Amino acid sequence: MKRTLVYMPLVVGLIVSSVCLAQSVPQLINYQGRLTNSTGQPLDGVNVNLTFAFYSAETGGTLYLSVLQPNVAVTKGIYNVLIGSGTITPGAESTLAAVFQNHADVWMGVQVNSDLEMTPRVLISSSPYAMQVDKVNSAASADTATTADTALSVDTQWLKDLDADGDGHFKPISANTPNDDCNDFDASIYTGAVDICGDGIDQSCFNGDCHPFASLVPTASPTKVMTANNLLYVIEGSVGLEIFSLSTSGSLSPVGSYDTAGEANDVYVSGNYAYVADYGMGLTIVDVSDPAAPSLAGSYDTPGLARGVFASGNYAYVADSGSGLQIIDVTSKTSPTLAGNYPTTLARGVFVSGNYAYVADDTAGLRIIDVTTPSAPAQVGIYNTPNVARRVQVVDSYAYVADSASGLQIINVATPSSPVLAGSYNTPGSAFAVEVLNSYAFVADDTGGLQVINVTVPASPVLAATYASPNARGVDYLFPYAYLADYAAGLQVVFIQTPP
Fold it and tell me: CA distances (Å), 211 to each of 34, 53, 95, 204, in order?
């Protein structure tokens, strides 16, 4: 049977709380994953042979060793295994401990039975083993909150998978053993600790904040995503527009696609139409009334390079790099016409709220343009962000700007003529896009992956969660999933259980 999905969390942090230790690095790795069949249904009541291979690189590279774990039970799609307890086939190293002792970063691949190794491999950093190694060695088995707290007195990340209630279960991996040991809101386990999606700590926890759920969907360098009409619309550059159906399980199924004439950069869906910022070809309007067979409705060739788009009422607002804000009358989808324009530096993104268009204008920062009269737009305010403003979303009286190397900038726009900085959060990567829902800002942060930032207090935004991804460029959120467009890794679905 073809396996199309593997749920592969990084579980380095789990070792300290649920694996017997004898050295400063593990002899065994407690690993949990998820398997489905080709239709996306979880495997249940079956046993499989799993081979875990450790490499020096994400593709190719040196094989350090492999471990065959035979006859692993899969229940409701979930399996749990102690890697290293099976048959080890040496490569460049002969023991699992040697792999982590001698190499800073290790990539792990998984093979099910005789199938090909699943992709992508997962990066496992060995750095956590350097923390408190003297105290780790003092514990023969750290399996309760009391024991582990003694062994790791400063650990605020690893203690979320402990057996706090003493029932013998570290994680609620089956329906007949429910518990909330992994819930970081449990006061006995460090209230409010930051969850790092994909690090192997939170992902199968009852009421855990976030974890990678549906893995990635192979796509060709996606850069933008938008959910609408219970569908996911994905922009993929030269491939154009792809449409996927959503499901409560988190799995995605391809529905249809449309290859635009240009290099698709952004999409905004309103009703039965998808408005695509098609770079050198301007605005492309795609009829998506039949998602399985999207078709061209009309187009308008803007003078610059269309990089961002927003639709409201009878108008499409295009961030047209090199020519500024272009306002297109789309009353007739087949024959759109220019209503008005306002020149700016290098417009990248646009968001319309009320009578104002908020333009992310590259090094010029955030421009606020009055579009009450589309034929005569006028700038009323500007805020020069510290870096390159790429995307913007406005919620209530705040504009949230993805400002590349300066991360998230939160601008108070209650008075459009006098925008002022309310707060900021310097993300580790380069902020490409932002999606705000209630008290959380989801930032596609390029090499910083997905950054989930609590913006309840705009003056003091704080990190709520992260998910590692190599080149995150676009994000949208529809409870309980964040849909992440990663230019290098494809389309990813991240489960965030606690509603924002």
Answer: 12, 23, 29, 7
